[in-house]
Write a structure and sequence with these properties.
Two copies of one chain form a homodimer. With 397 residues, chain A is an alpha/beta fold. Chain A folds into two domains: 139 residues, Aspartate Aminotransferase, domain 1 (Alpha-Beta Complex), CATH 3.90.1150.10; 224 residues, Aspartate Aminotransferase, domain 2, CATH 3.40.640. Helix content of chain A is 44%, strand content 16%. In chain A, helix 6 packs across helix 10. The radius of gyration of chain A is 21 Å and the shape is globular. At the A-B interface, helix 1, helix 2, helix 3, helix 4 and helix 6 of A face helix 1, helix 2, helix 3, helix 4 and helix 6 of B.
């Protein structure tokens, strides 16, 4: 039978990263391609203890249907933490629980975009968000990302010259894939532009708590006096990725649309793990746990940067993140990215080609993403050296 | 700020049922409105034991990112069970794990429907499916449901007279809300019509395993020689609703579109509970557990039917289900449904008005849905008597 698929999905390809992840069944290949939290960052003992207690004392609540908005005590705990620690959330905002930060992004797009509408993004940006926009039939238009955030002039120009711009999607802190953090000055300018053109901003912040160097910078949401910002967060990088628990904080009207959309996607988020998150937040020391994760990533990032400095030919440029999971490497223009990635895999090391993160799927790239949270120290050292050798192969051609 | 929401969500209302569920905070109101499995149907002890073992022996797999398609051992166990027990799944089919049966329905619609396309449904039908179709911008067109399933002549007529029909959505077994089971003869005719007009069928079967009377009837998917049927199932009614684990079995090409769409909605389903399901299926006796649930529902349904027979004025008609969770009651035309539901709540008993299940949201109804799985025996007896009194109030007016 020939199937007549919807236009919005007909051209959508699976995420290159998740496909790479899937194909990494060859254990001899070192993957610097993933975006997984370090396995040693899961607080297994505490979660096991709380789980046993939930099964003992409140199994029915944990196993029964719950509210689409989320388990009320968890909503409250998250809203309090956002408010007290990050000055996020005003009287007109609500916080709801979603099935991972990814769902918050997708629901926001569904709430705002008709087929053919446009979402403006940093270029490069997170492929999962790009595909979420495309799966709703929206166009993705990229604006150049500079060392201190999106190019402000080009952003305003793009808004002026593009029809039906509905959303501006940004990862201001430890951007995926570039590892870049948007400066405070640019955050303020972005907010002013959003206000001027009445465009809703999705501020995606899955890595914000993973700062291991430099100074905290206020989120754009913390400046949101007008109800223009949808803030998406997640427990994936601070408690467990596999449990799929995230949250969004946005103006009530937007939240109520997102909740209706969530109801038809999955009814609600896994109840047991919502209770587990709530108990962990209120009975354990989440901040101390996060401090421990920062230590792990500071060490791993430093190791990878040191290996890059000591081994990589000087023509290869790379970012120096102050947090998050990723380093972004740029090859000299003489090297073809597609050929390079293939040669790297032949040399037993995998990276994600920059083309995967382009808003315009046809646009070229000469960069690739490295991850330091998932590989072991030994794999980081060996992987970077293999990559450096691969570069040298091309330079010597 | 005035928000400019998407057309598809602008008019979408939250599910009336889930809104009723939310408003039932008044403990003095007996709810016959829910659709929750009986709390005593959760195998708490076994799940607790397996959970402790997962935390002890495989915590990293359970807490780390997984594959969008689902945890491979669970996919295999589900595919085997569908094949061996229900003759579901051929060489061209795949089985993937989704976040509750609801997600399978929504993903299938996203894969096939452009904004403005049509999904034909039984009328009345499950509100969660109706809203999933609407949230993708699809129109829902209802075809009359008779005692033995959808009206076949009207179905064919509707297909002929409607533009861009992409999907036919059916709950052939213990239909929600009507409690009706489609006869084998009609199932065969439906399949022939799908084949003739090349229309993909979503066979939603969340209640199929809950038969407590009568004889098993083969699913439409088991007749699917051409790759026309998407089968959606769920663990919600046989293990736990709150964990949000369901599955879909469909032709590979459809599954690969659904997987791309799932990737951008929630990346993958909660890993821990996928492992829990797999371990429960392979280490415990799922069939014996389901037999126990059938016993509970047989008893509860019989109790409710007996109370209806003994107390309800004869002018009120009701279905006699052979399984599932619901009884469908039809009021005499002299009684206004909206007034009746309000009066029932004033009398401290809640039901779901039939209007909530109409494909055409403006169409009238003089029926309501009763649930017997969630209330206690005492609540069933008292609730039905309160309803009967409410009917008598109207008859005596």
């Amino acid at each position: 039978m020939e199937y007549n698929f919807s236009n919005k999905l007909a051209s959508l390809k699976p995420s290159a990263i998740r496909e790479i992840f899937k194909s990494l069944s060859d254990p001899s290949i070192i993957s610097l391609a993933a975006g997984n939290p370090a396995p040693e960052s899961f607080p297994v003992k505490e979660l096991a203890k709380i789980s046993a207690d939930i099964f003992e004392n409140s199994p029915v609540t944990a196993l029964q249907y719950g509210l689409t908005e989320g388990y009320p005590p968890l909503r409250e705990a998250v809203a309090d933490r956002l408010k007290n620690k990050f000055s996020i959330g005003r009287d007109f905002d609500s916080t709801v629980i979603v099935t991972g930060g990814q769902q918050g992004i997708e629901l926001t797009c569904k709430a705002f975009c008709n087929e053919g509408d446009t979402v403006i993004c940093e270029n490069p940006t997170f492929i999962g968000a790009l595909n979420a926009f495309r799966s709703n039939g929206a166009n993705t238009v990229g604006v150049e990302l500079e060392d201190d955030g999106i190019n402000i002039e080009k952003l305003e120009e793009t808004i002026k010259n593009t029809k039906n711009v509905k959303l501006l999607y940004l990862i201001p802190t430890f951007q995926n894939p570039a590892g870049i953090t948007t400066s405070l000055e640019k955050r303020k300018k972005i907010y002013e532009i959003a206000k001027k053109y009445r465009i809703v901003v999705i501020e995606d912040n899955p890595y914000g708590e993973l700062r291991f160097a430099g100074k905290e910078i206020p989120t754009i949401k913390s400046m949101d006096t007008e109800g223009l910002v949808v803030y998406c967060g997640s427990f994936s990088k601070i408690l467990s990725a596999g449990m799929r628990v995230g949250f969004m904080c946005a103006p009530n009207e937007i939240i109520s649309k997102a909740v209706v959309a969530k109801q038809v996607e999955d009814v609600h988020t896994n109840m047991f793990f919502q209770m587990l998150c709530h108990r962990y937040m209120t009975e354990c020391d989440l901040d101390a746990h996060i401090a421990g994760i920062r230590d792990i990533y500071r060490r791993k990032c430093t190791l990878m940067l040191t290996e890059l400095e000591n081994n990589m030919p000087e023509c290869v440029k790379f970012t120096r993140p102050e947090g998050g999971l990723f380093i972004w490497c740029t090859l000299p223009e003489s090297i073809d990215l597609g050929e390079f990635v293939k040669a790297a895999i032949a040399n037993k090391v995998a990276v994600v080609p920059g083309t995967a993160f382009n808003c315009d799927t046809e646009a070229p790239s000469n960069a690739f993403r490295l991850n330091y949270s998932t590989p072991s120290d030994e794999q980081i050292v060996k992987g970077v050296r293999l990559l450096a050798e691969t570069v040298k192969q091309f330079l010597n051609k």
